[in-house]
Every structure is written in structure tokens, then in C-alpha cells.
Design goal:
By secondary structure, this protein is of the alpha+beta class. It has 1 helix and 5 strands; from the N terminus they run αβββββ.
Length: about 70
Amino acid sequence: ALRDRYDAQFVANPAQRSTVVSRQIVGDYVFDLEFITGTVGKPDAHLMAIYRVRSGVIDRAWFTPRVAVGT
């Protein structure tokens, strides 16, 4: 499901890029502050991605709303 979400997002926005600005790991959870560029019709923005990792595989993911750069 996670791969499907990302695949659809990048097909719709081939110039989109995500750069991990910082990462924190707490137990089974990974917190990535990401900088997103190249999304059609949206300004560059930051968001927080939270991943739960079980047995070496991401099994859940949550994303905060995007925060446009400069706001």
C-alpha cells in the first residue's frame, strides 16, 4: 500500500523530490523531516513522515500536512 501511494504520487509529479532533512529513530518508529520540491501546483514545503518498522519492514506510515516554505 505504501509503495502504491508513492508510485501514484511520483507518476502524477515526475519532477517531485523528497530530501530527508533530519531523522530520529525511537524504538520501532522513524521520524523524518522531509523537504518536498517539484509538486505540481504546490509550493516547496516541509512535512514530517513517521514510519513504524517491524521486522525490518515499514508496516505503517503517517504524514503531517505540508508546511509551505516561508510560512
